[in-house]
Specification:
Layout (H helix, E strand, L loop, with lengths): L9 H6 L7 H9 L5 H42 L3 H35 L5 H25 L4 H22 L5 H26 L5 H13 L1
Length: 222
């Protein structure tokens, strides 16, 4: 901790702007972010909310796609065309896997955003940021696959959250309990997965039993 911030109340560190104008201060700009912690957290939260909006649009598109394929399943069954009904049902299954994955990510990010919006001290930064970084990193590959256009935003969010965590440790001399952070991240993801499962059951009609009956022998012989 530097002499300027040592002993400074948290409220001043929280709002503090970089006021240095000398050579050392200009060099420091290139070494680490100079934005106050509050500003960094707000920037990260804005990025997260933007990504949540993108994911919401993605869920809407997935629902539309699901409805189209579902009608094709029903139509094929009505024509007793079980072969095409099976093809459409398998496609429907894949669409719904992606729907659950995107919904889970959306719910997890909403939890992170909510927590970021209630941070008031350095200790809360440590307990909130470490799990948040883990959650975002764990979702990166799957989200990049489901929503390729969001890959840049996901990377930026991960970088912002990591930067805040480093700055909080530097400013407050905090030590991070990464084991506890990982456990919390797993809990957030598991809760999001459970809620996503319920949302899928509520929003997406079940695949007709006729197709399910046709699919069972294939699963047993695999």
């Amino acid at each position: 901790m530097d002499a300027e911030t040592e002993g400074m109340p948290f409220s001043e560190k929280w709002e503090k702007k970089d006021q240095g104008s000398g050579l050392i201060d200009r060099l420091r700009v290139g070494a680490r972010p100079t934005a106050p912690l509050k500003g960094q957290i707000e920037a990260a939260n804005r990025q997260i909310k933007l990504l949540i909006t993108q994911l919401d649009s993605s869920v809407y598109r997935i629902k539309q796609r699901d409805e189209t394929i579902f009608r094709q399943v029903v139509s094929s069954l009505a024509k007793r065309d079980n072969e095409h009904a099976m093809v459409y049902a398998n496609e429907l299954s894949e669409v719904r896997k992606m729907g659950k994955m995107v919904t889970q990510a959306q719910l997890a990010l909403e939890q992170i955003s909510l927590r970021l919006g209630t941070i008031t001290d350095l200790g809360e930064i440590a307990s909130t940021q470490a799990p948040a970084v883990t959650v975002v990193r764990s979702m990166k590959d799957s989200l990049s696959f489901a929503l390729p256009e969001a890959d840049k935003e996901i990377g930026e969010i991960s970088g912002l959250l990591s930067s805040i965590l480093v700055d909080a440790g530097t400013t407050g001399g905090l030590s991070m309990n990464f084991e506890a952070a990982n456990e919390e991240a797993v809990r957030v993801l598991e809760e999001a997965s459970d809620v996503a499962e319920e949302k899928m059951k509520e929003s997406f009609p079940e695949i007709p039993t006729g197709v399910a009956a046709q699919r069972e022998p294939e699963d047993l012989s695999a």
